[in-house]
Structures are given as structure tokens and as C-alpha cells.
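ok here's the first one, seq then C-alpha cells
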Amino acid sequence: MSITKDTQNIRKGLSDREAILLSTLAKDGKSIIEYNDVSNALQTTYPNARKIVERLTKKKWLIKISKGKYLISPLSAGTKSEYTEHEFVIASNLAGKKSYYIAYWSALNHYGYTEQTPLTVFVATNSRIANTTVHGVKYRFITINKKKFFGTKNHFIGNKKIIISDKNKTIVDALDHPEYCGGIEEVAKCLWHAKEDISFDTIIKYSKKMQNSTIIKRLGYLIDVLEIKISPSLYNQMLNSIGSGRSLLNHHSTKNKKSNLKWKLFVNTSIDTLLEIKSAT
């Protein structure tokens, strides 16, 4: 990215040194940078790198996404700097060195199990990370117990690696926390669309590893309502794993509860709504 007359017409005030910096960073495939990246590229001191970043931010060539992290806004962004990296790449950088994976509604959308495009990127992590908003996109970090932190895979967006829940873990996480996936009705839709693409044997193993019998209760109930075929041995395995306590089908709603003795659930969602899922496909 060399500085040209056209470049000056788009964004005034970019010095030769700043143009060389942006060109070097682009050549190295960097779209999100820290002060050290600037210091190394220009062979300058850390304090001077901070000043350069501050200047480029004021000129809208850089966009601050979190403390010490900046998104490069290229020429293709136009005069208003309306550009952003892929949301999952930004989420990865916001997590930094902390363990994370793209999860819940975001992962369901990634695998094509929902037609809904959530306006929030959901990220599971085993340590606290502040929620934030970048270019109008909300990033919500859900802190989960370390025993639930498994079932992930690496995925590349261009040359950027992100970590996302695998297909089976995505469904298990959705059953664990429907409230991060649009509610139990949306989770039921996703299960219906995913039924040929997932392993129910793995789903049950993952559910047991999570040590939350509510996951299996919700799964069993939805399998019954949607008439999804699984092996009798797996079905019996589920029935023998649900314990004696009662759970809510829909996480937050406490209205119109009806008991389902078989799966030890308080069913607080209309069965007609769930049955419509099958007829709509």
C-alpha cells in the first residue's frame, strides 16, 4: 500500500513513514495490531510507537477495539473508515491469550443450523472478559466452568486462526444455555436442521461430561416431540442419566409450566410451537 495522490484525496495527512508502516503490516498479513507490531515494523521505541498509533487513530486509519489492540482500516474502507475484520477474528483478538471459543448462537449460525444472524457474537471463555461493541457488533463473553471447556476445533478465516465449538459441542452448549441461542424454540429448530449432521452418541457423551442432566432432559424431550430417530440403546441411556430433580425446558420462562414426568421437565413452551418446526421444513 504505497501512498499516492489518490490516497491523499481519500485521507489527508498520511505521512510517508505512516504509509510505509501500513504497507509493511499489510504485507505481513496483519489486520489487528498492538504497539509492539508498530515498534518492530519501524524499528522504533515503544513510547514512539504509541504516539504513532494515536495519530493514526485520530486520522481513522486505525480503529481501537480494546486496550492496546487496533484494527487497521484499509483504503477499501472508504472515506468514513467503515470497515471491520471478520467478527470471529475480532473476538479472537479481544480474548487475547485467554482460552476461548466461538459458541452458542454464533456457532449455530456458522454451521448453518439457524437462518437467524445474531447481532451479538457469543464467545465462551473460562475467565472473565469484558463485553464490548466494535463497529456496532456486540461481543458477549460467557464465562463457563472449566469442566465444560472442551469439544473445540480450529477454523481458518483467510490466514487467521479462530477456535470454535465443534458441531456436537455446539448443540450440547445450546441445550445447556438456550438463552444464548435465541431460546428453546430456536434450539429445537437447530437440532432439527442438524439431526443428520451430528452424532447423537457423541452428543450424549458430551452431555455427561458437562455434568448437567438438564441437557439430556431437554434433548430427550425434543427428540420425542420432533420424532427424531435414534437407537433404542442410546435412548435408554438418556433415560437412565437424568436423575430425579426437575428442570425447566425453557431456561427463563416460569409461566404455564406443565410437568413431563418422563423427562422430569417443567414444560413451559407451547408444544404446538415446537411441532411447527417440522411442518415448516
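and now the second one, same deal
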Amino acid sequence: MAIESTESILNTAARAGSALKSVVLVSSAAAVFNMPFEKKLYTEHDWNTTSEGIVRERGNDAGGFHSYLASKTAAEKVFWKFREEKKPSFGMTSLLPT
């Protein structure tokens, strides 16, 4: 659901043309933090790989917590993949509140 929603919004934004100046994704720090949480400086190169792996392994038995974390990570990755592949005319920013 998170992936499809993000893709849908970005595709709609792309159709707006030059009238649209920027798109801001309000994501979550969940997209970059692994569990258990490490105290370190996180950068754009960090992703939550723990929860995605748990959801891949356990499916519906992964539980709501890891499903949420994995969905935030997946949506964030789709956001940046869109920018890389489509090179839209609008700016793209992602906020990751804790």
C-alpha cells in the first residue's frame, strides 16, 4: 500500500508539469533505523534492512511494528528511485521525523 500510494502521488505530480515546484515526503526515521537501534550518525546511505528482512521472512507473522517500519522504508526507496529514473522537473525532499 505504501509503495503504490507513493508511486501514485509522484506520477500525478509529474503530470502537473512546470506548475509544480516541489514534492515533500513526510516519511519516518523508521526508514533508516535498524532494530535494535544503533546510536550513530545516519546518512542518506542508511536504510532499515532489519524490518524488511523480517517481513520478507515472516510475511503476515512479522507483526505490525516491523510491517510499519518496512513499509516506511519501501516507500522512501520508491521516492528516491522515482527521482533517479524519471528526473522530474520538480524538487524532491524527504523529511524523517523521529
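notes on #2: Residues 14 and 88 are 7 Å apart (CA to CA). Strands lie at 22-26, 91-95.
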